[in-house]
Every structure is written in C-alpha cells, then in structure tokens.
Amino acid sequence: MAVSCDRLVRNFKRNGIRVHIIHFTNRKKKFSTQTVVKGTYSAVPIESSEEFTLSLAAEFVQQLPFLDTLSYIGIFGGNLPINLGPVLSKWIHKPLITFIRGNDFDEGIFSKKRGHVLYALENSRYVFTVTKEKREKIDSLVSHNNTYFTQNGINTAYWKPAKSHFENIEQLKKSFNSKIPIAFIGQLKAKKGIVNFVETFAKFPYKNDFVLCLIGDVSDETKTYILDLDINVQFFSFANQNELILFYNAIDIVAIPSFYDGMPNVLLEAAATKNMVIGANVGGIKDVISDKKDGFLYNPFQPNELLDVLLQIHKMSPSEKERMSEALFQKIKTDYTEEIEISNYINILKP
Fold it and tell me: In what residue span(s) does the Glycosyl transferase family domain sit (predicted)?
C-alpha cells in the first residue's frame, strides 16, 4: 500500500498538483510539519489509544495554514485515516476522496470497525479502487454512484537490471541448483495463501524439478511448518527495490496465491521483469491476467486447480513459457503505465 501511495503522490506532483501528506506514525513522538516539493509533510504520532490519537490529530490538522487552499481531503490506508477523514471533511467543508486498495476494504468491512469503512465510503465524493470486483461490492453498499476502478501502474524501465546486477543475478541462479524457481514476494501473511499453495505443491509429482523461494516477511511458525514439508525451499529476507531487481531477473515464475487482494504491485513487477505469473483468480489479479494467454489463474480454494496449472507449466517448452511471459510484459508496458494510472485519476477529479 505504501508503494502505491508514494507513486500516486509523486505523479500528482509531476502533474502540477500540490499534495499535503498527513502521516500517522509511531516513529515520531511530536507533531511536526515540513515543507517539501509541491506540498508539505506532517507527522502525526500514534498515541496510547486510537481515540486519543484521532482527537489530537483532528485538532492539529484543523490548525494547519493551508486548509483553505485544498480542493479535496484524501484518505489512503488503514483504520486511522478512514476514521478521521470523513469527519474532517465535514468540519472543514472539503469533499472526501477514499482510495481503496486491498485489506482496507476486504478485512475492514468484516471487522468490528466496519461502520468506519461504510461511513467513509458513503460520505466520499469519489471512491477509487484498484479492482473491478471491489467497485461492484462498494457500489452495492453505498447510495451514490461515485466509485471508480483505477488500475495500478508501473514504469517497466525501473525494473531493468543494470550491468552491475548481472554477476549477482547469475550467482542467484546458480544457488537454485538447476531447479526452476517459483517465487513468493512481499509480506507473506496468511491472506496471501502461501501455506495453502505450499501444501498443495508438496503433492505435485514433479515438485523436485522446482524450488520455492520465499522472499519477504514470513512468521517463524509458517517457516517451521514449510521446512517440515518434503519440498525444495529457500527463504530470503525482505528486499528493497535494488535487491528485488536481482530476484525478479533470476527467477522464472512468480506465484500470487492470495485469498483476496487488490492489484498487487508484485504482479506488475513480475510482469515488468518477464516472469510467468501463477495467480489466484481474485481481485485485481484477474483484472490483469488473461488465463492461459499471458499467465495462469486458479481458484485458491480448489487445490486440484493449482495442481493442474503446475502440470501445464511443467509440460510447457521454454519457447512457450517465453511467449506467455512476453505477452504479459507487453500488456503491462502498454496498458499499465504510471502515466495512464495518474491520468485516470486526474480526468475524473478535474472540474
């Protein structure tokens, strides 16, 4: 979510729009505001209780000097922004924009705080979501018709390896011991379906031809469980973009087995580095992938569908794999650019 937020802020500014960031953080203990390029950044410390945090934040924000210059209040992220945003919107008389990505809706709507989510959605001038599925769900819950599907974007040039990467990429490839790597990348939480994928993979008859690479945050309990399975597996710590370029260009397949999701940045990054994608048929994954044309989709609740996908991949020739990954790369390079992404927002928001 942070990657998407940073990308949108950067591209709004590139298009001449001033953006003032209000950031809830537990890394700072005092309220502060500093001027940045085309806007400001304000740190709002997270206090001992949510109510105290929000009450102080509301008072702080209402005293900021630039409020009269605002066109909108936008909320992006978890419960604190979703709780504060619609109230501030009414108090300072500025229309609300709610940006929905993934868990903020998928889990928020079923939590004890669903009222905050529904109140924000109902009182938004615009709701932007990165999946068609979420747009339909939100439309059924609110009385307005102001929900828009706005896909994520990526600059594929940022993911092209430099000459300085080549040696490390080759070393990574050698570490796979001639086995085909399937990678899982990011914060590998329960909702990402990693355990279910791995359990099913352990039953795959050709599993020894592959190695699973888990790149990111994995709980100790999950790691211990996976290590007890009869599979080839490697764990890597969470990586920054420079390190991820190495992984993406050393592996062959990226798996995204989420039970529910937005439009994962990992999906676009995998496509930008010409990896084949195995994705659960959910959320924004199914908005991007055309099954068996530029990737594979499967029902994450049906293990046999995943086994069938794995078997199809095992039977594919190198040229068939290359054609599929190239097709996804061309789709992303053409239709999922940062320029298209930000223009979708601006065209809707402009008066």
Answer: 175-326
pTM confidence score: 0.94
Which amino acid, 250?
A
What tens digit of pLDDT does each residue of 52-83 get? 999 999 999 999 999 999 999 999 978 999 99
DSSP 168-185: HHHHHHHHTTTPEEEEEE
pLDDT attached to residue 276? 98
Contacts of range 205-211, beta carbons closer than 8 Å, 24 or more positions apart: 206/310, 206/311, 206/314, 207/231, 207/232, 208/179, 208/232, 209/179, 209/180, 209/314, 210/179, 210/180, 210/181, 210/182, 211/176, 211/177, 211/179, 211/180, 211/181, 211/182
